[in-house]
Amino acid sequence: MRRLHLTDRHLRVMLWCILLGLQPAFAGILDPFNWARSDRIEVNIPWLPFENETRCYDELGCLNITRSWYHLIHRPFNVFPLPRVVINTRFILYTKKNPTDGQLLNVNVNKTIVKSNFNPKRLTKMIIHGFIDTPLSNWVSEMKDELVKAGDFNVVIVDWAGGSLPLYTQATANTRLVGLEVAHFINTLQKEHGVDPLDVHIIGHSLGAHTAGYAGERIQGLGRITGLDPAEPYFQGMPTHVRLDPTDAQLVDVIHTDGKSIFLLGYGMSQPVGHLDFYPNNGKEQPGCDLTEGPLVPLTLVKQGLEEASRVLVACNHVRAIKLFTESINGKCSYIGHQCPSYQHFLTGKCFHCGHGCAIMGFHADSSPGLITNKNNQSENEVYPSEEHDTIGAKYYLSTGKDLPYCQRHYRVAIQLANPKGAESWVQGFLKVTLLSDRGVIRGMDLTPNNYVKLEHGTTYTIVVTHPMDLGGKVRKVELSWEYDMNVLEPRSLCILWCNDRLYVKSVLVDQMELPSRGKRNVDFSTKLCTPKREFAEIPNRGSASFYDNCGR
Ligand SMILES: *[C@@H]1O[C@H](CO)[C@@H](O)[C@H](O)[C@H]1NC(C)=O
Ligand SMILES: *[C@@H]1O[C@H](CO)[C@@H](O)[C@H](O)[C@H]1NC(C)=O
Ligand SMILES: *[C@@H]1O[C@H](CO)[C@@H](O)[C@H](O)[C@H]1NC(C)=O
Ligand SMILES: *[C@@H]1O[C@H](CO)[C@@H](O)[C@H](O)[C@H]1NC(C)=O
Question: Do residue 394 and residue 413 come from a single domain?
Answer without folding.
Answer: no
